[in-house]
Amino acid sequence: MSASNKIIFGNLVYSCVFEKQRGDEEFIPDFFLGFQLSGETHAFHAHGHTIVTENTVVLVRKNQLIRTVKYPNKSGKYQFVSITLDKETLQQYAIENKITVDTPFRGNQKLFFEPDDFLRSYFLSLAPYINKTKEATPKLAALKIREAMELLLQSNPDLKNLLFDFSGSYKTDLKEFMNQNYMFNVPLESLAVLTGRSLSTFKRDFDRTFNMPPKRWLLERRLEEAHYLIKHKRQKPSAFYLDLGFENLSHFYFAFKQKFGVTSTKL
């Protein structure tokens, strides 16, 4: 059976697969609140590796690069449901509830947060909509989204300083960011947004920082890591080439020999 992603209502998306599935690199532009109904999601990101287990609720921060592997449970089913909290929705909620940001958010800086049992119960209450035994009117859909935000703030009031901080983007440290995210095969436009820059400014700052264009640096950095994995970790290219951002093995083998003068097998 094939994988499926269904929009249940508004910003609510249901994902279901029946065999292990490796996801592509994704640029997460908005916050989203998710619930692992069955199976596990293994998420790889700049801060490491996070496993979202069954019956876990997570709030994923916006402006992240992430790669996922979806694992069905023993009965052969993977199910994940998520609600996107986009800027427009959050701004409207902030206006209606007169929310202002007091101080910068200083909580957990990791990719995932783990809210409480009230949110688990909330997601379980969405089962009739997911199973299509009940239809949600636009008004009810909007109320369900607001209910999720109410419960989220109830679980941690300080999250208001994270969710409702609409201040403009700021430039991140380019060297630190690139060394944390070089393995993600995403367009340069996404990297520019994540570092708080326009594409032209990103390229200009990149050349000033690394003394070479972004694409050349990315290839060099990935090949250096590949060299280390082969020589010191005794790993085969087929086991890691996708994880390092290479699109196929042929490209990897050609680039590797061109840089090091030998094939990967001769290391």
UniProtKB/TrEMBL annotation:
The keyword Phosphoprotein does not apply. It comes from the Bacteria. It holds the Pfam family HTH_18. GO terms for molecular function: DNA-binding transcription factor activity; sequence-specific DNA binding. Keywords: DNA-binding, Transcription, Transcription regulation. Residues 172-267 form the HTH araC/xylS-type domain. The keyword Hydrolase does not apply. Gene3D superfamilies: Homeodomain-like. PANTHER family: HTH-TYPE TRANSCRIPTIONAL ACTIVATOR RHAS-RELATED (PTHR46796). This is AraC-like DNA-binding protein. It comes from Pedobacter nutrimenti.
